[in-house]
Model the fold of this input.
Amino acid sequence: MTIDVTPTSVSGINIRSSQNRLLIKNGRVVNEDGMEDADVYVEDGVIKQVGRNLIIPGGTRTIDATGKLVMPGGIDPHTHFELEMMGAKTADDFYKGTRAAVAGGTTTVIDFVLPQKGQSLLEAYNNWRQKADGKVCCDYALHVGVTWWSPSVRKEMEQLTSEQYGVNSFKMFMAYKDSWMLDDYTLYQAIEACAELKAIPQVHAENGDIIARNTEKLLAKGVTGPEGHEMSRNEEVEAEAVNRACVIANQANSPLYIVHMMSKSAVQALQIARARQRQPLYGETLAATVGTDGSHYRNACFRHAAAHVLSPPLRPDPATPQAVLDALADDHLQLIGSDNCTFTEKDKELGKDNFAKIPNGVNGVEDRMAILWQKGVNTGIMDPCRFVAVTSSTAAKIFNIWPQKGRVAVNSDADIVVWDPRLERTISASTHKHAVDFNIFEGQHVVGSPQYVVVNGRVCLDDGDLRVVEGFGKFIKTPVNSPYVYGEEAADSVEPRAQSPMIHTPKRVTNGNTPSPGFGEELKLVNKQLEAMSGLPSGCSTPTGRKMRDTAQRDLQSSSFSISKEVEGLDTKTSVRVRNPPGGKSSGLW
Ligand code: URP
Ligand code: ZN
Ligand code: ZN
Done:
């Protein structure tokens, strides 16, 4: 059941204070650096206490989280709501899009302001704020695209990074020739500007010139269908751009964040660059990359194939999802977003006779967390702490909103997901909350989903019932000079980055193998991971005084996984697997 409460339907009631006290009891709190059994008390949208035997005022609503995980709400670092591109407008607006986000456990999204060439960045930013502010059901922040260059653009970048506007990240495109693409000279200038402003440069890494030429050649040969999309921009076209972007960032002595990394070759290029470069390099992949693959481009149904078109594309290599999951687990990639950019069937048909005209984009904001839990945690590739890191806390750190966001701790925003690792459901467009009639994860059975989602202290998913409020979310400013990115340990270090304390050692729990268990087996595996982790001594203090484990203690044995043999050994210090973790046989959840 879905109940949408609009501001008018609750007129006279202060929706921010109507549920101002909440106790989440008996759950297991999972943060990116450890977990503990603890209750969480929330008042006026903020976490006030975490621990056992808390003293709670009367009249407080209690949620029993026995057998559940209490995690920071997801932060999706990559969405496009109400975006106009390629002659169409995305189906999910800021209301429907953030409603879908909350349904899936995400409580903050970071959307992209994308100015047209020649348009003022400030004007575009103001348009986005106008579109979003009254509609968002959860908090949001903004990246801004640098789609052209002039002294006025440089000046506006500086203005946008001020306290007034609160932007700390800029996206540059190496693809979409003739619309958003920058040449290398301009890209270099834009990255330099980001470094000077201590903002985070982001790139869409694909070689736009090669794509343009390949597209001409394919169309001339009569390849007009969606399969031409991937053919025009194969792995090499992505990997080349990843390497080039890293080189340019290195020349500019800048950190770099590469969005939507879609292929093994691209991840490999990043892995090599991370081993050689001194400034931090971050790689983001997508729910789509780990949850589906490029075989769909060859589906005979245009609607089906076109619905999977995004850029960079899904890859036909069936080993891609597993390799990307491994890279996420091993810290060769640091985050997972959705790149939610949904277009209706009618919009996708703009490219019926020419794949290059199919509006680019897929769904993902709703299913991102469940897909990663299913593919990554239930299979033993990553543990729940790493899940929290890649779905939430690393984004909060990079974009400098941590620990306000991305952490279950005293004084953090009460953006919380109560995750039921037993909850089973089948993903479908017939039940999802998106404003589009297609879901790229259609029919996938997932075990593990949110039961409750708390947004700024308000229960917005209530035992499965969606109770969002349009306009309840707020704009979150992202200050420049993120210590995680620009702190002493992260920048200007001559040490290999793997040795930096700012870089979190990845965690792996594989129980000695990588099984493909049935659903019962999946749950046992998660139980085993949780049990293995909770029995260990701890290294960092929690608000309760109880020690939580530090990362080194959780990483019991190391291995040397890498994405390919060619780069084996380059970055092995960041590659840690836990084999045969202690904890023995699981007898169930707690
Ligand atoms: O296909 C995609 N990724 N659509 C959204 C625009 C972008 O490049 O992120
Ligand atoms: Zn992009
Ligand atoms: Zn995007």
In short: Confidence is low (pLDDT under 50) at residues 1-18, 492-507, 509-520, 533-590.
